Amino acid sequence: MKRPPPILDPPRRRRALSDEEHALWDSVARQIKPLRKKHRAITALASPPSVEARAAAKIAVRPKPAPAATPQPKKSATPPLVPLGRRERSQLSKGRKEIEARLDLHGMTQVRAHRALSAFLHRAHGDGLTFVLVITGKGKVGAESEGGVLRRQVPQWLSQPDFRTLVVGFEEAHIGHGGAGALYVRIRRSRFT
Q: Mind listing the domains of the chain with CATH numbers?
């Protein structure tokens, strides 16, 4: 059994615009500005421009100056910090990767802790160590405490240029290694030339 062909709607004819609608459209088109400044050829509905107008247009259009050579960014002497990878962090927290040295800053003043951290990182870098643990402590716990000065300062110190030459990156330690009161620090490899 054959199906009858589907009944299609007859095509609609476009309605012609009235003179009033044309005038409205022309006024709207003149008022809008393009999003991008592209020089498009404007077709004049009136007579072609006079010789003086063409000469003035040639003077008004100036050639674009050659783009100035942009200076290449200099390679910084201090490399950027890179966070530890998920796999490295997991291996450290589970004990599959060894923490090769530890530094405990509990009870130290900021000046003493900074000196101890600097000496520790220089020694670890010189010895070719990869992962170390820096224990800052969590600070006093309470409503009015700010959570420990060294806990806030050590990440800032590690971000400074003088430590970035020694440190690849750092991250908060696993709870088994001290949690928020300790940092895993990855030491940069020393390059022998």
A: 91-187 (3.30.1370.110)
Burial state string for 102-118 with b = 16 or more CB within 10 A and e = fewer than 16? ebebeebeeeebbeebe
Residue with tokens 């700010």: 146
Give Cβ neighbours of residue 134 (< 8 Å, ≥ 6 apart): 102, 103, 105, 117, 120, 154, 170, 182, 183, 185
pLDDT tens over the chain, length 193 residues:
677 776 766 667 778 888 888 888 888 888 887 776 655 555 545 555 555 555 555 555 555 555 555 555 555 566 667 777 788 777 777 777 888 888 888 888 889 989 999 999 889 888 888 888 888 887 776 655 566 788 888 888 888 888 888 888 888 887 777 777 888 888 888 765 4
Exposure of 163 by Cβ count < 10 A (0-12 exposed, 13-18 middle, 19+ buried)?
buried
CA–CA separation, 170 and 133 (whole Å): 9
Dist CA 171 CA 184 (whole Å): 5
d(CA 126, CA 120): 10
Q: Using only the alpha carbons of the chain, give its radius of gyration.
A: 36
Answer yes or no: are the C-beta atoms of 151 and 138 closer than 8 Å. yes
